[in-house]
Amino acid sequence: MIFKRDMQSFEASIAYARQQDEQDELRGFRNEFFFPQYNGKDAIYFCGNSLGLQPKGVQAAIEQELADWRQVAVEGYWKAKNPWLFYHQQFSKTLGNIVGAKETEVSVMNTLTVNLHLMMTSFYRPTETRYKILVEKGAFPSDQYAVETQARHHGLNPDSTIVEISPRTGESILRTEDILQIINEQNTSIALILLGGIHYYTGQLMDMQSITTAAHKVGAIAGFDLAHVVGNVPLKLHEWEVDFAVWCSYKYLNGGPGAVGGAFVHEKHASDKNYPRFGGWWGTEESTRFRMEKGFIPKAEASGWQQSTAQVFNMVALKASLELFNAAGINRLREKSIRLTNYLEFLLEQIKGIDLEIITPKNCNERGAQLSLLFKEKGKEIHQRMTEAGIVVDWREPGVIRVSPAPMYNSYEDVFHFYEIVEKIASKRF
Ligand SMILES: *Cc1c(COP(=O)(O)O)cnc(C)c1O
């Protein structure tokens, strides 16, 4: 879906914001979440890109598993309401819709960085001539540490193995043409291209389709970290032929702190039982798993990368949350998200007297829910003022405030109140 900006029709008034909320067919989902409280009211929570709110259904979902454990104990693997042996499989369909994959291409397991290492074990197998890893400069630290230590693990020097792509001088976001050019230049020396699907700092959404196509042209693997994409922007990983992807579930997916992560492995690789990997018993067929036989034979799907017993209590909040995603639909959420973030941008553009630059791309097709605000002066103090006024947004070094209205539970009124507060801070020449 390609969206156009429709800034002309927006109005900077509470009446307009309320009217937009009334017309919003997703407005009811807000009531399905708990908001942190500020002075007896819901805080303006724009931090769903860091930790999504708790769905009200989580408690009952946890109590269900506690009850099954209490009442049937080990038999819960087969006899629980949601049998634990297959617990992770409940998520594949909804997640498949969200990332554009077949159910068999999605595996819910571990956590993001662990999955990244597991995927690199399979998909980063350097040779003497093809060994480089292309990443974005300033990638999320955990991703940087993962590629650095993978290079060392293979006996390579990270400095000559990792190629960082930077924005042009004076620019904050990457140009797709520059990424494609570096791919062409580095050509057959590239083993793996690994980028954040949305950059955590700038909020830039990458053109994953073009990058994947270019990677394949030079014989490289294309993998993406979808931490900031999953549940935010719908994807077509299967159709784009992305080789693998990983994500966490505690940001836009509202799976709770440290929730189980996920991985995508394209069917063209996952169907190959001999694809190199580090195996464990949960990657094998359930029907033969308990024969306890020698010889690892993985399932011919993404869950063939599973290793350990499903972490039921680490998945149960995600179950409650994905039911809401199922009901809302990722495409409807994206449509609302585009308008909500455009409205936020429109309002911020009305504010005078404060030196504020939005470093996130202006084109709504090149970003998700998040806007990254760069204040030329006193950014940290402004963040402090926002916090004191009941706004939850985060400060990221070296100098942006990330603001993410989540379409699942944020309203136009939230966005308008945020604007009013920033306006007030600006008028005091802070
Ligand atoms: C949030 C985030 C992570 C976190 O990784 P964990 O293993 O879940 O701690 C990693 N990479 C990116 C890009 C992120 O935004």
Structure, described:
- This protein has 430 residues and is an alpha/beta fold.
- It has two domains: 2-34 and 329-426, Aspartate Aminotransferase, domain 1; 62-325, Type I PLP-dependent aspartate aminotransferase-like (Major domain) (Aspartate Aminotransferase, domain 2), CATH 3.40.640.
- Helices cover 37% and strands 14% of the residues.
- The chain is built from 16 helices and 17 strands.
- The protein has helices at residues 14-23, 58-72, 76-79, 92-99, 112-123, 141-153, 158-161, 176-186, 208-217, 237-240, 267-270, 286-289, 316-328, 330-350, 379-388, 412-427; strands spanning 33-34, 37-38, 41-42, 44-45, 54-55, 106-108, 132-136, 162-165, 190-196, 221-225, 244-247, 262-265, 356-358, 371-375, 391-392, 394-396, 400-403.
- The strands form five sheets. A seven-stranded mixed β-sheet has the order 6-12-11-10-9-7-8, sandwiched between helices. Strands 13-14-17-16 form a four-stranded antiparallel β-sheet, with helices on one face.
- The longest helix has 21 residues, at 330-350.
- The chain is globular and about 70 Å long.
- The relative contact order is 0.18.
- Bound molecules: pyridoxal-5'-phosphate.
- The site of pyridoxal-5'-phosphate has 12 residues, from helix 5 and helix 6.
